[in-house]
Amino acid sequence: MPELPEVQALAERLNAQLASARLVRTEPLAFSALKTVLPSPEALMGKRLDEVGRRGKFLVFSLEDLRLLIHLSQGGRIDLVPSSRTTRPRGAVLRLRFDRDPAIFVKEFGTERKAGWWVLDAADPGPLAKLGPDPFSKEFADLLRSGADNGRIHAMLRDQRQVAGIGRGYSDDILHRAMLSPYRSLASLDPGERERLLEAVRDVLTEALVVERRRTGGLPPKLGDHFTVHARYGTPCPRCGEDLRRVSYQSHEVTYCPRCQTGGKILADRRLSRLLK
Ligand SMILES: [Zn+2]
């Protein structure tokens, strides 16, 4: 899934190419992807695109007195295409045409959670109202320094109400960087571990953003080739050489290094132990 670095760099690219352009056509191409009824998508026509920004994993298009949000979710991606193109390939979600190229084409692949979009009055936060602070904010630093969350840190980092923009991929890399077990809770961390976690969050996201800013165009299906440990189960830990392990869940898996993160302990893989019974 595109997370903060991918969406931030994408927003910057879209802004550089399309800020000040006028939206001439909004084409909804998938029935259930539009999450709002009013204002209607037609209300966006003729509006000037003031800015493309990001909040959490949402792309935020500011269009005068209206806002358009896009959430790519698991399988949503973006192509930048010539405005003249009118084809409607499989997985098409939305096409936005401006008074200059490129047009923005939102598509999705796979059957996992779907991409969605919202048309809102500029003053209406819509789904952004539920988001927690940005990972680079003071509010988030305060949360990590004094929070007493008892859940697993891995789940906390992915919870968009606690901190907005981190998902499965970067939470693996962040905990590996911080040398903390994904099963630890924030409440159990001492002050030194909390600082290490905060630094890891910011360093991992900042480094990924540097890489993402080298990308051109939209956002292709294959992402995340620059993860350190995420999805690299079975390969050697880049820090200590030990084989990376994983814990599998129905919808995702958590990758970690036993030597660097859990004091050598192998975390119980519930799905695997069930199969072995
Ligand atoms: Zn290691």
Any overview of this molecule?
The structure is a single chain. With 277 residues, this protein is an alpha+beta fold. The chain has helices at residues 4-18, 138-146, 153-158, 168-178, 191-212, 258-261, 270-276, and strands at residues 23-28, 49-55, 58-63, 66-71, 76-81, 92-98, 103-108, 116-121, 245-248, 253-256. The chain has a four-stranded antiparallel β-sheet with strand order 1-6-7-5, with no helix packed on it. A four-stranded antiparallel β-sheet has the order 2-3-4-8, covered by helices on one side. Strand 2 (49-55) and strand 3 (58-63) form a beta hairpin. Helix 1 (4-18) runs parallel beside helix 5 (191-212) and helix 4 (168-178) packs across helix 5. It is elongated and about 60 Å long. The mean pLDDT is 94. The structure holds zinc ion (ZN). Zinc ion is lined by residues 237, 239-240, 242, 257, 259-260.
Secondary structural class: alpha+beta
Count of runs of 4 or more consecutive helical residues? 7
* Rg over CA atoms: 20 Å
Q: Which consecutive residue ranges, at least 5 long each, have pLDDT under 50?
A: none
Strand order, sheet with most strands: 1-6-7-5
Shape: elongated
* Percentage of residues in strands: 15-25%
Helix content: 25-40%
Total strands: the figure is 10
